[in-house]
Structures are given as C-alpha cells and as structure tokens.
Amino acid sequence: YEGLCYFDSMNLVYRICPTVEHYTCMVDILGRAGYLHEAEDMIKTMTGEPSIAVWMALLGACRIHGDAEVGECIAKRVLEIDPGNFAGYRKERDAKKQPGRTWIEVNDAVHTFVVDDQIHPEMIKIRAELKRLSVLMHDAGYVPNTKSVLHDVEEEEKVIHLCHHSEKLAIAFGLMSTDPGTPLRIVKNLRVCEDCHTSMKFISKIVRRKIIVRDANRFHHFENGVCSCRDYW
After folding, report:
1. pLDDT(24) > 70
2. Locate the DYW domain: which residues (predicted)?
3. What is the β-pairing status of strands 211-214 and 184-188?
4. Confidence (pLDDT) at 216
5. Are residues 171 and 205 in contact, defined by beta-carbon separation less than 8 angstroms?
6. Which residues on neighbouring strands pair with residue 226, listed in sequence order?
7. How far apart are CA 228 and CA 3, in angstroms?
8. Which of 31, 156, 218, 226 is deepest in the core (most CB within 10 A)?
9. Helix/strand/coil (H, E, C) string of the chain?
10. Residues 58-110: pLDDT tens digits?
C-alpha cells in the first residue's frame, strides 16, 4: 500500500486535491496488484464523473487477473460511456478489431508482418528460424500461453497460431537479417499479447540481444530475459 500512502499524503500533507489522472494511477496500481474491489471502491470516492481511462484501467486489471465477473460489469460501463470502444465489447457483439501489424526496419527497408503471414518473400526461412527458437525456448522453460487464442481449435493448433503472431515473425526476420548483438526495434499497432511478451523475454536472453518494442501502450525494452515494463502494460 505504498502507493496509497503517497496518494493520501497529497491531500493530508501537501494540500493537493487529486485529479482524475491521480485516481486513474491509483486504480491501475490497485488493480494490477489484484485488489480489484478496492480499485472499484477508489473509483466510487471520486468527486467527479469517472473518465473512460479510469474504467479502462480497471478493465485491464480484470483481464490480467482473469476476473470475468467484475470485468463484464466494467465492460458494460465502458460501453455506456463510449459505445465505440471495442475493448469493452463482448464476443457475442461481433465487434471487429483493427488487424494486428508489426513493422521492423532492416537495411533501410521497412518490412510489415501480419499474423500467419504468407506474403513475405523470406517466409520459409522465417518459419524455420521460429522453429529453431521454439526449441531453444522450450528447453529454457517456456510454456505457451494459449488463453489469448479465441479460436475453437485443439490446443496444438493454438500453439501453432501463437508461433505465427506478427511480433514473432518480425523478430525472427530481424534475427536472421542482422549481425549478432544488433538490437532489434519493432513497432506494433496493437498491444503486445501476453505470450509474445513472454517469448520476447526468453528470446532476448537466449540470443543475447536487446529487443525494443513500441506497441499501442508503451515502449518495452527486453534484455537478458527481463522487460522494462516489469510485466505491467
């Protein structure tokens, strides 16, 4: 509760009235720590109307901790405030998300990848590199996180689908196209999924390279098996 102490000291010690941005930070801190109900209570203490950012912070925490019950209630609130926000739509609403794309620049040329990419001219070599990395990652203790795969298919097919995410394709291409030790820099238009995030930590340690990723939320600096975001993004 160190964050709560700082938050309380704003008013009690420094006479600073917390703004909606401060409340958003506190909801994010409590939610990430697993105190979802406390985070919801924090929102109820706000003097003004909670912003979409506040509710989205709590919704993100529900996703991290797998609390579907609270998450569904928050998603409904998000839709009430912002009907166009697709992050709050449930599966049966059939909302269409923006397709995920990842970009990497190699030798002054920008290469674009999508999930299960079939277009890139080096795709056969890229898939071979991913297969090599998968073996090394498995030996290092990597376990695929298939819960983000929504397709109603067998577990083995889910693992294959994860292997062909655009981030992984871009990284594999970068590894085979640049000199050893060269940092890799990629950009993705959506949030990096949990499995890709874990994979990048393993890959950074296995190949001893820095991997810098800019996703829709923030920059991630992967080095020696650790990410700068400390797994909160």
Report:
1. yes
2. 141-233
3. parallel
4. 87
5. no
6. 223
7. 20
8. 31
9. CHHHHHHHHHHHCCCCCCCHHHHHHHHHHHHHCCCHHHHHHHHHCCCCCCCHHHHHHHHHHHHHHCCHHHHHHHHHHHHHHCCCCHHHCCHHHCCCCCCCEEEEEECCEEEEEECCCCCCCCHHHHHHHHHHHHHHHHHCCCCCCHHHCCCCCCHHHHHHHHHCCHHHHHHHHHHHHCCCCCCEEEEECCCCCHHHHHHHHHHHHHCCCCEEEECCCCEEEEECCEECCCCCC
10. 998 898 888 888 889 998 888 888 876 655 555 555 556 667 899 999 999 99
Q: Token pair for residue 114?
A: 């999508």
Strand order from edge to edge, sheet including 101-106: 109-114, 101-106, 184-188, 211-214, 219-223, 226-227
**What's at 223, amino acid-wise?**
E
Biggest distance spanned by C-alpha atoms of the chain? 62
Q: How far is CA 155 from the centre of its chain?
A: 22
